[in-house]
Amino acid sequence: MGGKSTPDFGDVAASQGENNEQVVRDQLYANRPDQYTPWGYNKWTTEQMPDGTDRWTQTQGLKTEYQDILDKQTAIAAAKSDVAGGLMGRMQSEFGAPADWRGLSPMGQVPGA
Protein backbone atom coordinates (compact mmCIF):
# COMPACT_ATOMS: atom_id res chain seq x y z
CA MET A 1 0.00 0.00 0.00
CA GLY A 2 2.71 2.46 -0.52
CA GLY A 3 3.82 2.62 3.10
CA LYS A 4 7.08 4.26 4.06
CA SER A 5 10.10 2.02 4.02
CA THR A 6 12.53 2.07 6.93
CA PRO A 7 16.01 3.26 5.92
CA ASP A 8 18.91 0.87 6.43
CA PHE A 9 20.70 2.67 9.25
CA GLY A 10 23.78 0.49 8.84
CA ASP A 11 24.24 1.75 5.28
CA VAL A 12 23.59 5.32 6.39
CA ALA A 13 26.19 5.04 9.16
CA ALA A 14 28.77 3.49 6.83
CA SER A 15 28.22 6.22 4.24
CA GLN A 16 28.48 8.94 6.88
CA GLY A 17 31.69 7.38 8.23
CA GLU A 18 33.26 7.42 4.76
CA ASN A 19 32.23 11.06 4.32
CA ASN A 20 33.72 11.94 7.71
CA GLU A 21 37.02 10.26 6.80
CA GLN A 22 37.24 12.32 3.62
CA VAL A 23 36.48 15.55 5.53
CA VAL A 24 39.20 14.79 8.08
CA ARG A 25 41.68 13.94 5.31
CA ASP A 26 40.86 17.21 3.52
CA GLN A 27 41.31 19.16 6.78
CA LEU A 28 44.70 17.55 7.40
CA TYR A 29 45.96 18.65 4.00
CA ALA A 30 44.43 22.12 4.35
CA ASN A 31 46.02 22.64 7.78
CA ARG A 32 49.54 21.72 6.64
CA PRO A 33 50.54 24.24 4.00
CA ASP A 34 54.15 24.73 2.98
CA GLN A 35 55.28 28.14 4.19
CA TYR A 36 58.11 30.28 2.85
CA THR A 37 59.33 33.45 4.54
CA PRO A 38 62.28 35.79 3.96
CA TRP A 39 64.13 33.82 6.68
CA GLY A 40 63.35 30.23 5.80
CA TYR A 41 60.67 27.63 5.21
CA ASN A 42 58.36 25.09 6.79
CA LYS A 43 57.37 22.14 4.59
CA TRP A 44 55.16 19.08 5.02
CA THR A 45 55.52 15.77 3.22
CA THR A 46 53.49 12.58 3.43
CA GLU A 47 54.38 8.96 3.08
CA GLN A 48 51.77 6.27 2.58
CA MET A 49 52.08 3.62 5.26
CA PRO A 50 51.35 -0.10 4.66
CA ASP A 51 48.04 0.21 6.53
CA GLY A 52 46.85 2.91 4.08
CA THR A 53 47.32 5.85 6.45
CA ASP A 54 49.60 8.81 5.79
CA ARG A 55 52.65 9.60 7.88
CA TRP A 56 53.36 13.32 8.00
CA THR A 57 56.85 14.80 8.27
CA GLN A 58 57.48 18.47 8.97
CA THR A 59 60.78 20.01 7.86
CA GLN A 60 61.95 23.46 8.87
CA GLY A 61 64.97 25.28 7.58
CA LEU A 62 66.67 28.63 7.30
CA LYS A 63 67.88 30.37 4.18
CA THR A 64 71.58 29.68 3.64
CA GLU A 65 72.78 33.07 4.89
CA TYR A 66 70.69 32.84 8.06
CA GLN A 67 71.82 29.27 8.72
CA ASP A 68 75.42 30.51 8.40
CA ILE A 69 74.75 33.27 10.96
CA LEU A 70 73.12 30.80 13.36
CA ASP A 71 76.05 28.38 13.01
CA LYS A 72 78.54 31.17 13.82
CA GLN A 73 76.52 32.36 16.83
CA THR A 74 76.30 28.78 18.09
CA ALA A 75 80.08 28.38 17.71
CA ILE A 76 80.68 31.61 19.66
CA ALA A 77 78.34 30.46 22.45
CA ALA A 78 80.12 27.10 22.60
CA ALA A 79 83.53 28.81 22.80
CA LYS A 80 82.30 31.03 25.66
CA SER A 81 81.04 27.96 27.49
CA ASP A 82 84.40 26.25 27.03
CA VAL A 83 86.23 29.29 28.48
CA ALA A 84 83.82 29.47 31.41
CA GLY A 85 84.22 25.74 32.04
CA GLY A 86 88.00 26.12 32.03
CA LEU A 87 87.79 28.87 34.64
CA MET A 88 85.67 26.86 37.06
CA GLY A 89 88.68 25.28 38.81
CA ARG A 90 90.39 28.65 39.22
CA MET A 91 87.20 30.22 40.54
CA GLN A 92 86.76 27.39 43.04
CA SER A 93 90.31 27.80 44.34
CA GLU A 94 90.04 31.60 44.60
CA PHE A 95 86.52 31.85 45.99
CA GLY A 96 86.18 28.50 47.72
CA ALA A 97 88.05 29.57 50.88
CA PRO A 98 87.26 32.54 53.14
CA ALA A 99 89.17 35.74 52.40
CA ASP A 100 92.33 36.37 54.45
CA TRP A 101 91.91 39.87 55.90
CA ARG A 102 95.02 39.80 58.14
CA GLY A 103 97.18 41.89 55.80
CA LEU A 104 94.71 44.80 55.64
CA SER A 105 94.74 47.91 57.80
CA PRO A 106 92.10 48.04 60.51
CA MET A 107 88.81 49.69 59.54
CA GLY A 108 88.87 53.49 59.68
CA GLN A 109 92.68 53.79 59.80
CA VAL A 110 94.92 55.10 57.07
CA PRO A 111 97.77 52.77 56.20
CA GLY A 112 101.16 54.06 57.34
CA ALA A 113 103.82 55.04 54.91
Keywords:
113 residues, elongated, 3-stranded antiparallel sheet, alpha+beta, 2 domains
Overall pLDDT score? 89
Number of domains: 2
- Tally of extended strands? 3
Backbone shape: elongated
Strand content: 15-25%
Strand order of the largest sheet: 1-2-3
Oligomer: single chain
Task: State the major sheet.
Answer: 3 strands, antiparallel
Distance between the termini: 130 Å
What is the SS-derived class? alpha+beta
Structure characterization notes:
β2 and β3 form a beta hairpin. The protein folds into two domains: 11-62, no CATH class; 63-94. The protein has a three-stranded antiparallel β-sheet. The relative contact order is 0.06. It has helices spanning 9-30, 64-95; strands at 35-36, 40-48, 54-62. The radius of gyration is 35 Å and the shape is elongated. The chain is of the alpha+beta class and 113 residues long. It is built from two helices and three strands. 48% of the residues lie in helices and 18% in strands.
Quick description:
The protein is built from two helices and three strands; from the N terminus they run αβββα.
Task: Furnish the topology, listing elements before pairings.
Elements (H helix, E strand, L loop, with lengths): L8 H22 L4 E2 L3 E9 L5 E9 L1 H32 L18
Antiparallel strand pairs: 1-2, 2-3
